[in-house]
Specification:
Rossmann fold; binds iron/sulfur cluster; 426 residues; alpha/beta; single chain; five-stranded mixed beta barrel; 17 strands; pyruvate-formate lyase- activating enzyme
């Protein structure tokens, strides 16, 4: 979502006549779009903001702005002012559409501008977007989150759930199809909540059904799903519509019921496993991935071991694993029995030691299969090979060609790695 916000910021400025600079030194405006979901991301930002002082000193006319969810946190604007006085604009998540007007004000001599008002003002339904890719496009469908998982800062900095009207989303996807985009990614902190604030209009399943009918779009993805809100009806809708990718990213966060309750996730492992089994039975070819946090406050060795067993039983294609990161202002930050960082790191390693062989084994089962791959471009590791993704979201490296970028091709899988597949173009 943060990446897509950057595309919107670029779109807003392009609509105002600005052009993207080749590098930081040439830029007359530098906008730092921040993320505060984990502490490490925030630490990077402080270092980056500090490094901009050199450019401001060399050229006092450049405009420096900081925006995004880190800036939206309580008292953060004051903190940024104190630590990085060279910033001209500090705005939160709810004011990014105002950036062009604030930049004009700073150029006119009015600096600094600070606007971190809360969620009382909605973003316009449609904003210009300068998209980074030509084949895959991200689209916001719902902003904010009402869930208040006890470790998470998002509801405080992104506000309550607000769905975009379906007609705005459908029009955007139709334009994308016309422009040649093959794949769309629907974005929301909890996409399954789509439409709950538009009673009688449309829910998430209804939106998928509508978007599935748009000609030209070949793949529909969405991110992120809350397992609690993912019901069998939604699985059935996806199962019957081949454009909706058979990839389920269902962040479980912990395999221990005690920790899930402390996290305020709203489901237990039995509920989750039942959903998983339904998906695996109805769509055996689908991939299932998850997110996991290790070292949550109160997680004992017994809780962790119990969780490991559960994760092993689930057999995920991929688990994205994270050390618990304390975010001040969240209930978990003040919980008792915080787990030492060294222990968190050990547990993360133990989790990966269990999960990685499972990911590898699942990928090995694909050797010899012919899969459809959307070609993304030259691979990062070698200019002789190309990279693309299957509808199950597996990365495939293969002997592609430049003229195939953007099209869906058949690739036979010849080798499997933990994180990707290797294949040959058919
Ligand atoms: S559902 Fe996701 S975004 Fe919302 S509070 Fe929980 S972890 Fe954060």
């Amino acid at each position: 979502m943060n990446e897509h916000d950057s595309e919107i910021i670029a779109g807003l400025l392009e609509a105002d006549g600005y052009k993207l600079a080749e590098n930081l030194e040439d830029a007359q405006i530098i906008i730092t779009n921040t993320c505060c979901v984990r502490e490490s991301a925030e630490n990077h930002i402080w270092g980056f903001l500090g490094s901009l002082k050199r450019l401001k000193t060399a050229n006092p006319n450049i405009v420096l702005a900081v925006c995004g969810c880190m800036a939206q946190q309580d008292n953060m604007a004051e903190k940024i002012r104190a630590k990085a006085k060279h910033m001209d604009i500090i705005i939160g998540t709810f004011q990014q559409h105002r950036l062009p007007e604030y930049i004009a004000e700073v150029i006119g001599g009015n600096t600094p501008i600070i606007d971190v008002m809360g969620a009382n003002e909605d973003l316009p339904n449609t904003l210009p977007v300068a998209r980074q890719g030509k084949n895959k496009a991200q689209i916001n469908i719902i902003y904010g989150c009402n869930n208040y998982c006890s470790y998470c800062i998002v509801p405080y900095v992104r506000g309550p759930e607000r769905s975009r009207p379906p007609e705005a989303i459908i029009a955007e996807v139709e334009d994308l199809a016309e422009a040649g985009y093959k794949e769309i990614m629907l974005l929301g902190q909890n996409v399954n909540s789509y439409g709950k604030d538009l009673p009688g209009v449309m829910d998430f399943a209804g939106l998928l059904v509508c978007l599935n009918q748009i000609k030209g779009i070949e793949r529909i993805r969405y991110m992120t799903s809350h397992p609690r809100d993912f019901d069998r009806k939604l699985v059935d809708v996806i199962k019957d519509r081949p454009k909706i990718c058979p990839h389920f990213h269902l962040p479980i966060q912990s395999g221990s019921d005690k920790i899930l309750t402390l996290m305020n996730r709203g489901y237990d492992t039995a509920f989750y496993y039942d959903l998983l089994q339904y998906i695996k039975t109805e769509m055996p070819h689908a991939s299932i991935t998850t997110d996991l946090i290790v070292g949550f406050p109160g997680e004992t060795e017994k809780d962790f071991a119990e969780g490991l067993n559960f994760i092993e039983k689930c057999r995920f294609d991929v688990a994205y694993t994270f050390l618990y990161s304390k975010r001040s202002g969240t209930p978990a930050a003040t919980m008792e029995n915080q787990v030492e960082m060294a222990e968190r790191k050990l547990r993360l390693q133990r989790l990966m030691d269990i999960q990685n062989p499972i990911s590898l084994q699942i990928n090995k089962n694909l050797i010899g299969k012919n899969l459809k791959v959307l070609v993304e471009g030259v691979s990062k590791t070698s200019s002789d090979t190309y990279t693309g993704r299957t509808d199950t979201n597996k990365v495939v490296i293969f002997n592609g060609r430049e003229d195939l970028v953007g099209s869906i091709v058949d690739v036979q899988i010849t080798q499997a790695k933990t994180w990707h597949l290797i294949g040959k173009l058919l």
